[in-house]
Request: fold
Amino acid sequence: MIAFSCPHCGAQLQVKPSMAGKSKPCPGCSKIIQAPADGSASASDSGKKSGARSASDSGKKSGARSAAKTPTVCSAAQETVSSPLKSSALAEYPFLAPPEGPEELGRLGPYIIRNVLGTGAMGIVFLAEHASLKRMVALKVMKPSLATHADFHRRFLREAQLAAAIEHEHIVTIYEVGDDRGVPYLAMKLLQGESLEDRLRRIGGQLPIEEVLRIGREVAEGLNAAHARGLVHRDIKPANVWLEEGRDKVKIVDFGLARGTSEDGHFTQAGAVIGTPSYMAPEQANGEEVDGRCDLFSLGSVLYRASTGQLPFGGKDTLSVLSALATKTPVPPRSLNPQVPPALSDLVMRLLAKKRHQRPQSGREIVEAIEAIERGETGEEAPAAVPEETPAQRQPAKEKTTPSEASGETKATESGERKRLKKGRRSGARRKKRREGEKDWGRVVLVTSLVLLGVAVLVLVLGFLRHNLKKRAAGQEERPAIHVLADRFIPPTCALPATDSACCTWS
Reply:
């Protein structure tokens, strides 16, 4: 058997001697490769090629394995094997200039192409070295078939220039943006470590909550810096969140690469939707105009998966994922993992709101919320910020069963929540009763005042009437006295004789 490694993905392959010198698709990456004519030489070249990929974590492991398995061979045998590999590379990447040394796959602009780090929907990432600066970089190149489209070409350069203008500790540094023979490229800092996608797969799909909070906070800080510059990433996902070797410091990668078609179903047709359906926002899936809040939705999907090990919107194909994205509400993370703090679960559900105005409006807001969770400041007022659809989102949680190991903790938590709700209802009832009592006292005072006012008016009226009656009675008693005096009045008598008629006349 002839043992060798794929120059594109580093997969270890074995073929029968009859296949020596023949071309065949690689089972790992489906690229057409040529089997070497010499098994021992191919093994040496396999170790050499895999060692060159040590800049990436996966390449480093592959190189270590191949180097351990193959013995040291002469340089003549290495040259014998490298020729067909170089010919294959030139056929696969015709936009590269011919190599000028034994360790090259070709040249592009001022860069020496050493190896292939990975391929995407519309671009290729090479391990490259600047010819004059002797600096190793990750060189991202747009595929020539797409670079011929003026819109893709212009967009790639414009967004790469915007990304290069951002200097932030959580965004990968871009050294240069250029164009060589109609193929645009950008040179980025070569990162050591692994992507969040690789980390999740390696540990079984779920991170400790402290690590979830730290990664979410650092990604939000990087997105806030990008959005302030008017740059929307549109494809935040675990594969584009890089964890640097050592401190696991987050670096957001893949700025400036337009997304389109893909054979693996992760992307829809070019020009229609840009992004990964499992992580994209509803407005992004509908082809609408997007802003920074679509990146925040994607960050919510990343946090959901990192804390629960599951995607919020799953499906067997792109169509089913988009359907779930438009019609379904995911179960809160705390229902799947009881270790998720309630405040973090609420924050993730806010990020996954269908309506963009119901989500946090900036990366800074997310940073502040996560910092409060890290300090333990969860507060009772936090649930008030949850969008209106949250009660409906929490309803399916009753149908889910929690693991037996966490049943006691879940029951205790639910009991505590019920006690808090009951206490809140009691205090609310007391306040309501107090308010009703205050209203009743107000009515009593008002009625009493009106009654007293009526009594006072009645007393005044009665007093007035009594005074008038007394006055009338006094008047009636004075009149008879006058008549009596009149009756008792005796006119004077005349002293003259009665014979004198003139004198006795009384008038």
Q: What stands out?
A: The radius of gyration is 47 Å.
